[in-house]
């Protein structure tokens, strides 16, 4: 960093802490490209790298009151925050993969035991029963969607807003998932959640 740039930056730090948008833009222009390059080297994915850098700026902006008044540059602060974001990302990905692997192992054991057909048969009967318990427009909207009507087609035919249609479908999904969770409480929760989510998705999406 040149001496001129360092001097310019030091004048913006207090303004940044005070929440001035111009100061935010200054630091965005200073470091976004460098941060993105570092993030991309680790992620090898443009969207993920951009998301991480965006999260860095949001985090620092939201916690700007914690910035030390003695800082003459925020460069180390930005890159340290990015490093932590990358480490957190890898940690969460590792956990997610472990959960998925456990779920797959559990599914394999069920298939070997010949239980998968029974599980899906129960799911189907519960979904059908839950559908019959839906009331009013929610039931009509659900049935039309199951018959491959689009969101806009349902809205036009029923004379309601598209957002209302989406709300009914979302509520239907929540009702069905709640019923599945209650009825299959004696099974592997993760497995049932994954199967139920996929099963209901076929009905509602």
TrEMBL record:
Keyword set includes Metal-binding: no
Limits of the RNA polymerase sigma-70 region domain: 28-94
Gene3D superfamilies in alphabetical order: 1.10.1740.10, Homeodomain-like
Coiled coil: none
Keyword tags: Sigma factor, Transcription, Transcription regulation
Any Pfam family hit: Sigma70_r2
UniProt-listed NCBIfam families: sigma70-ECF
PANTHER family hit by this protein: RNA POLYMERASE ECF-TYPE SIGMA FACTO (PTHR43133), RNA POLYMERASE SIGMA-70 FACTOR ECF SUBFAMILY (PTHR43133:SF46)
Protein name per its UniProtKB record: RNA polymerase sigma factor
């Amino acid at each position: 960093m040149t001496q001129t740039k360092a001097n310019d930056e030091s004048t913006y730090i207090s303004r940044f802490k005070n929440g001035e948008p111009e100061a935010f833009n200054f630091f965005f222009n200073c470091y976004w490209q460098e941060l993105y390059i570092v993030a991309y080297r680790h992620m090898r994915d443009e969207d993920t790298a951009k998301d991480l850098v965006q999260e860095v700026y949001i985090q620092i902006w939201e916690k700007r009151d914690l910035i030390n008044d003695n800082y003459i540059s925020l460069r180390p602060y930005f890159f340290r925050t990015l490093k932590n974001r990358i480490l957190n990302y890898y940690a969460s990905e590792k956990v997610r993969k472990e959960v998925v692997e456990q779920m797959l192992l559990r599914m394999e054991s069920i298939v070997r035991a010949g239980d998968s057909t029974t599980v899906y048969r129960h799911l189907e009967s519960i979904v059908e029963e839950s559908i019959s318990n839906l009331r009013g427009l929610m039931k009509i909207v659900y049935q039309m969607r199951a018959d491959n009507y689009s969101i806009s087609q349902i809205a036009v035919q029923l004379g309601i807003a598209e957002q209302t249609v989406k709300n009914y479908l979302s509520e239907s999904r929540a009702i069905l998932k709640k019923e599945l969770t209650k009825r299959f409480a004696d099974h592997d929760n993760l497995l049932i959640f994954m199967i139920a989510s996929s099963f209901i998705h076929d009905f509602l999406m």
